[in-house]
Amino acid sequence: MSSRTSSRRRTAKVPASATVINMPRQRRSGRSGQPFIVVVPTHGHSWKQRLAAATGRAVWRHRHALIPSFAALAALPATALLHALAWWSGLVLAPLAAGPLVWLLLTQRRRPTSERTVLVWRIGLSLLATAAIAWAALAAAFNPLAGPLGLLWVLLWAIAQSGWLVVRHTR
Which is nearest to 36 in space by CA: 24, 50, 19, 51? Predict the structure, then answer.
């Protein structure tokens, strides 16, 4: 009997709770080619694993809509690290809080608008940015969750996320 017609089976140890699918060898793999075995678990995933997978897929699918949330979640440990390493960094950040208000004044002088909605958006954006930078300065100086700073962080995050979603859906 030639090697082409021999029916030797190579077996591998597989757990009892798995389904085995044997793929035949390719033509040019030669005699020494090992069989390709796919082991598929037969038991289902728990509800926690399914929930985590569904949440991960949803976050990945809508990642552009969640940019303010990612920024807020990054700001919390960043300011905590600043507070731990150099509490005086809050004194450096504090003057930067006036930047958005200066931007508003310069924008209104260079490009004045008579539209009420444009003016409201400009004022709202500058106030939100001023509050966020002031929060970062206070969080770096004292602690991100000290006193009302935790509540202020949640409020700023909710306002920024809501505004972001409104702007994305009005385009």
Answer: 24
